[in-house]
Design goal:
By secondary structure, this protein is mainly α. The protein is built from 5 helices and no strands. The chain is elongated. It starts with 17 loop residues before the first helix and ends with a helix.
Length: about 190
């Protein structure tokens, strides 16, 4: 039998189980995906409206992406990563757009390679369908991977009280558990 203050009642001070960190990450990815799906729908709709109106392909993609980015910023800031640090909205907004511009560059590169590069060889790649596949599907998929990583790392950073991929609930519970036994040990 162990008595208070002995080695037997020392709490587990290990980090939260991997499964809880993984669940938190899956929730983040789900929310990010939902915001992304809404933004994608906005992007796709505006892009195709502009193409039908005769706007040049790359310019149409740039306009649709800027509008969709605003929708994405608001959704990610106020829903996906609302539990993360929000110290300076202007800095976040600027960083979000800079990183999104890199993501836009990825999408535009896919579209340009298909439409202007490979389209010289295969004219079918200059069609609106081919533009949607290269710019909207392939470019968006690659850009989305970059965006998730960069937004999470640089824009919506974890606060000092939370661990990476954690909502803070486990960190607070863990801190309370660690603090209790040390007081008992000190008084013994």
């Amino acid at each position: 039998m162990t008595t208070p203050g002995t080695l037997g009642d020392v709490p587990d001070t290990s980090p939260p189980p991997r499964s809880s960190v993984l669940r938190a990450l899956v929730r983040e990815v789900g929310k990010f995906g939902t915001v992304g799906a809404l933004s994608f729908a906005v992007d796709l709709t505006i892009f195709n409206i502009l193409l039908q109106a005769g706007v040049e392909t790359l310019f149409a993609k740039t306009i649709s992406t800027v509008i969709a980015t605003t929708v994405a910023f608001l959704g990610n800031r106020f829903w996906t990563w609302r539990h993360r640090a929000h110290d300076h909205m202007a800095r976040q907004y600027t960083m979000f757009f800079v990183l999104n511009a890199i993501g836009l560059g990825i999408g535009l590169a896919c579209l340009a390679i298909s439409h202007y590069g490979l389209g010289q060889i295969w004219p079918a790649l200059r069609s609106p369908l081919a533009d949607n596949v290269s710019g909207q599907l392939i470019g968006t998929a690659i850009g989305t991977l970059f965006r998730f990583w960069s937004y999470r790392r640089f824009v919506f950073r974890a606060t000092s009280s939370t661990t990476e991929g954690n909502t803070g609930q486990h960190a607070e519970r863990h801190a309370a558990t660690v603090a209790k036994p040390s007081t008992v040990r000190d008084s013994a």
